Amino acid sequence: MQLAFSQSCENNKQPILEVLSTAFAKSTHILEIGSGTGQHAVHFAREMPHLFWQTSDQQPYLEQISQRLLQYPTANIGQPVALDVSQSWPIKNSHFDGIFTANSVHIMDKIMVEDLFSGIGRFLSPFGSLCIYGPFNYNGQFTSESNARFEQWLKQRNPHSGIKDFEWIVELAFNQGLKLQSDHSLPANNRLLHFKRE
Ligand SMILES: C[S@@+](CC[C@H](N)C(=O)[O-])C[C@H]1O[C@@H](n2cnc3c(N)ncnc32)[C@H](O)[C@@H]1O
């Protein structure tokens, strides 16, 4: 079977890893939300053998993630679990001291992003880290022409999706007891936001 593949994942996985290596240096169990093709999971789990990487996504994506894990076996990756942020999360207790999600917040509508943060509030353990990768707007402005064009493309596909405001994300995180630790500028006008539960 041909594996699902994203060129942007290939391009961004190394710059993201460089930030995660520090942000998740003391973490042991990471929950990834919206694992997509599984490319990030395989790369990050291999390069950070000190932690266990739990993949998840909405049901239709699980097969493609499983296929990638089959072709790139790594002991410290968990088989994907069905997790839709707006439904009941398949997590029993709060043993995740890290949560990661890439390129999902601009796909979600605003209610889903609120649901994402309410789940993070329930399932990220004390002192855990949250890392969110993707494009964000600042002071209501796009950070680049290409992000403005990307927004138009997103809205044509789904008028409820779109690039979210950095300030709103910080507020949602703060309401769940998370404080922004760092905001990294990554290639292609993307950011990596690192929050910590205090
Ligand atoms: C553009 S893809 C990004 C996939 C991968 N993380 C990457 O960076 O290539 C968006 C991801 O967000 C996930 N997603 C969208 N809405 C979601 C929801 N309500 N609950 C969980 N995941 C969701 C999709 O299933 C998909 O995996």
Task: Please explain how this structure is put together.
This protein is an alpha/beta fold and 198 residues long. It has a single domain, classed as Vaccinia Virus protein VP39 (Rossmann fold), CATH 3.40.50. 37% of the residues lie in helices and 28% in strands. The chain has 6 helices and 9 strands; from the N terminus they run H-E-H-E-H-E-E-H-E-E-H-E-H-E-E. The strands form 2 sheets. A 7-stranded mixed sheet has the order 3-2-1-4-5-9-8, with helices on both faces. The protein has a two-stranded parallel ribbon with strand order 6-7. Helix 1 packs parallel to helix 2 (39-47). It starts with 6 loop residues before the first helix and ends with a strand. The model has no long low-confidence stretch (mean pLDDT 97).
